[in-house]
UniProtKB/TrEMBL annotation:
Protein name as it appears in the record: diguanylate cyclase
Keyword Transmembrane helix among record annotations: yes
SUPFAM superfamilies: Nucleotide cyclase
Domain of life per record: Bacteria
The EC number(s) this enzyme carries: 2.7.7.65
Database matches in NCBIfam families: GGDEF
Catalytic activity as recorded in UniProt: 2 GTP = 3',3'-c-di-GMP + 2 diphosphate
Length: 378
C-alpha cells in the first residue's frame, strides 16, 4: 500500500529524528554485530594481496594492497573495541558507516588506477556499497541508513565523473574482463543504491514501529512494563554518573474493583483514561509514567525521595479534586490513588528491588486508609 502524503511525512520525520533510548540500545548491540562481521571481512581482505602475489602480480601492487588491508584491519579492530564498551558512543554508527562505504570507494579507486573499466564495472566491490547500506538496518537508526545511502551515491557518483573525465577515448572504457562501461549502466547502479537505501530505511522504520508498539499500553498510550524494564538501566546509569537520586513511585487506584462493578468494564476503562490524561497534563520533565498492570502505574522521578514525596502527594490531591464524569447524566465519581515510594540507590539498585520496596509501602498506604503516599516504613 502506498503511504499517503501525511504518512510519508511521518515516515521521513521519524527516520530523520533521534531514535528513543530503547531503539538506541538495540542499535548499539547491532553495531557490535556489524563490527564483528567487519573484522572478519577485513581479515579476509588481508588474503587478497597474497592471492594476487601467487597469481604473479607486481610487488608494488601487492605492497599497496597489503598496506591498505592492514590499515582497514586496524580500524576494524578499533571500531570493534569501541562498540564492545559498556558506554555507547552515539557518533560511532555514523563514523563506521562512512568508513564502510569509503572502503568500497577506496578499493574501486585502486582498481581504477590499475584498469579504468574495473572501477565502474566490478560487481563484487560495488556490492560493498549495498552491504554497507543493508547493514545499517542493524543499527536501527534511520539517520545512519540515509547517511550510508547519500555517502555511497555521492562517492560513487564522483568516481563515475572522474573515470569518464580521465578516459581519453571510449576504447579505454572497454574491457575483455569487465565489459563496456556505459553511462546508462552507471545510472542504473546509482538508482539501485537509492532503492537499497529506501528499502533499508523502510525496514528500520517498521522496526521502530514494532518496538514502539511492544513498549506501549494499548488502552492509555502510556509506556508499559517492557518499556520500563529497558529504560531503567539507562536512568540508573545517568543517576550514577550525575551522583543524583531517582525515586520510583508505585501508584495503585483505590477501589477500582468497585468502579468496575458500578460502571462496567468500559466505564472503568474510561476512568483509567481520565486519570492518565490528568497525570499526563501534570507531567514535568525528568518524570516518566508507565502503566505496569491493571490499575497500577509507575512514576519515575529524577528527585530524592523527600522531594518526590511532596510531588506525588501534590498529584494525589489534584487527582482527588478532579472527579470523573462517566457521562453527562451520571454523578461525578471521586477517584483517588495510594502510592509507595522507593529511592535509587538507597532502597535498591535494580527495578525489581525498588518495586518490591515500593509495593511494601503501597500496601502500608492501603492499610492506612488509602488516598495517601508512603515513603518509609514506620
Ligand atoms: N476496566 C478495567 N479493569 C481492569 C483492568 N485491569 C484490571 N482491572 C480490574 O481492576 C481491579 C483491580 O482491583 P485491585 O487493585 O486488586 O483492588 P481495588 O478494588 O482497586 O482495591 P484496592 O487496590 O485495595 O484499593 C480488578 O477488578 C480487575 O479486574 C483494565 O484494563 N480495565
Amino acid at each position: 500500500m502506498l503511504a499517503t502524503d501525511s504518512g510519508l511525512k511521518a515516515i521521513v520525520s521519524s527516520l530523520l529524528s533521534r531514535p528513543d533510548e530503547i531503539m538506541l540500545e538495540i542499535g548499539a548491540s547491532g553495531e557490535l554485530a556489524v563490527a564483528r562481521l567487519r573484522a572478519v571481512i577485513a581479515g579476509v581482505l588481508l588474503l587478497l594481496p597474497l592471492a594476487n602475489m601467487l597469481a604473479g602480480g607486481s610487488i608494488d601492487e601487492n605492497l599497496i594492497g597489503l598496506a591498505g588491508a592492514v590499515i582497514i584491519n586496524i580500524l576494524a579492530q578499533v571500531w570493534l573495541a569501541l562498540s564492545r564498551r559498556r558506554r555507547h558512543y552515539r557518533w560511532l554508527p555514523f563514523v563506521t558507516t562512512v568508513f564502510d562505504v569509503s572502503v568500497a570507494t577506496l578499493v574501486l579507486v585502486l582498481l581504477a588506477s590499475h584498469h579504468l573499466p574495473a572501477a565502474l564495472n566490478s560487481l563484487i566491490v560495488w556490492c560493498g556499497y549495498l552491504l554497507a547500506i543493508l547493514l545499517t538496518a542493524l543499527r536501527s537508526d534511520g539517520r545512519v541508513t540515509l547517511l550510508a545511502g547519500a555517502t555511497a551515491m555521492v562517492q560513487y557518483g564522483l568516481l563515475i565523473l572522474a573515470v569518464f573525465a580521465v578516459a581519453k577515448s571510449p576504447e579505454e572504457l572497454i574491457s575483455i574482463d569487465y565489459g563496456t562501461v556505459t553511462a546508462a549502466s552507471q545510472w542504473q547502479r546509482l538508482i539501485l543504491l537509492a532503492v537499497a537505501t529506501v528499502i533499508t530505511a523502510m525496514v528500520v522504520y517498521r522496526m521502530q514501529q514494532l518496538v514502539q508498539m511492544s513498549g506501549t499500553d494499548g488502552l492509555t498510550g502510556l509506556p508499559n512494563r517492557t518499556w520500563l524494564i529497558h529504560r531503567m538501566p539507562r536512568l540508573f546509569e545517568a543517576a550514577d554518573s550525575e551522583n543524583s537520586s531517582l525515586t520510583v513511585a508505585l501508584i495503585n487506584l483505590d477501589g477500582f474493583r468497585q468502579l468496575n462493578d458500578e460502571l462496567g468494564h468500559g466505564g472503568a476503562d474510561r476512568a483509567l483514561q481520565h486519570l492518565v490524561a490528568l497525570l499526563n497534563g501534570l507531567a514535568d520533565s525528568g518524570e516518566w509514567l508507565a502503566r505496569v498492570r491493571g490499575d497500577e502505574f509507575v512514576l519515575v522521578l529524577r528527585k530524592p525521595i523527600g522531594t518526590a514525596w511532596e510531588r506525588v502527594d501534590a498529584v494525589r490531591r489534584i487527582v482527588a479534586d478532579h472527579s470523573f464524569e462517566p457521562d453527562r447524566s451520571s454523578v461525578a465519581i471521586r477517584m483517588s490513588f495510594s502510592a509507595g515510594l522507593a529511592c535509587y540507590p538507597h532502597d535498591g539498585r535494580s527495578l525489581s528491588a525498588l518495586l518490591r520496596r515500593a509495593d511494601r509501602r503501597l500496601q502500608m498506604a492501603k492499610r492506612g486508609g488509602r488516598n495517601r503516599v508512603v515513603l518509609r516504613e514506620e
